[in-house]
TrEMBL record:
InterPro entries: RNA-binding_CRM, RNA-binding_domain, RNA-binding_YhbY, YhbY-like_sf
Gene name per UniProt: yhbY
UniProt lineage: Bacteria, Bacillati, Bacillota, Bacilli, Bacillales
Biological source species: Thalassobacillus hwangdonensis
Record field: transmembrane: none
Alphabetic keyword roster: RNA-binding
PANTHER family: RNA-BINDING PROTEIN YHBY
UniProt keyword Metal-binding, yes or no: no
Span of domain CRM: 1-96
Protein name: Ribosome assembly RNA-binding protein YhbY
Keyword Secreted on entry: no
């Protein structure tokens, strides 16, 4: 689990990132979770955008993605989800 201080740090790190995944009408699926898991291994911190036509609640989507990819949910702001997962091979972010 991340502490409040670590989440604040990750939010500031994620501020300049652009979303690299979009959740649309079809919602969350296995393929998307697998791709997000790979992206997290490479980048550690990513943003996912929830489109207007997504039928699921964005908080539910965030929970599904975090659990599926075994990642930490940093924040849900507007229609954007920020996820963090410590990389095993490409560790770049040193948490406070």
């Amino acid at each position: 689990m991340l502490t409040g201080k670590q989440k604040r740090f990750l939010r500031s790190e994620a501020h300049h990132l652009n979303p690299i995944f979009q959740v649309g009408k079809t919602g969350v699926n296995e393929n998307m979770i697998a791709q997000i898991d790979e992206a997290l291994e490479k980048r550690e911190l990513i943003k996912v955008s929830v489109l207007q036509n997504c039928m699921e609640d964005k908080n539910e989507v965030a929970k599904e993605l975090a659990e599926g990819a075994r990642a930490e949910l940093v924040q849900v702001i507007g229609n954007t989800i920020v996820l963090y997962k410590e990389s095993e091979e490409n560790k770049q972010i040193n948490l406070p």
